[in-house]
Request: fold
Amino acid sequence: MAFSFPLPPPFDAQGWKLKIRDRERSEPPHVTILHKHRAWRLDLRSLRFLDREPDPAEVPRDIEKHILNNIDLLRKEWDEIYPENPVNSQEDADE
Reply:
């Protein structure tokens, strides 16, 4: 089941959303930032954007700060949804 994380005003009213989507078990742990028809994936391990398009610079800095302020909760939620692909996996320790 997907996890939706609330964003503060004014972003919630402007159509911005933050989710950990379902059916993404084989991908690197990430949170998806949504705005209208665009989506950005932020890696929960490295805290870097996984894609070049759409341009990560289009994500408001206050949303990025909100994610960083709640990173422990987001990582915990990912681990609960995808226990077979946890944020702090052995693969990370090997790299």
Summary: The beta strands are 3-5, 16-20, 30-35, 38-43. The helical segments are 61-69, 71-81, 90-94. The radius of gyration is 13 Å.
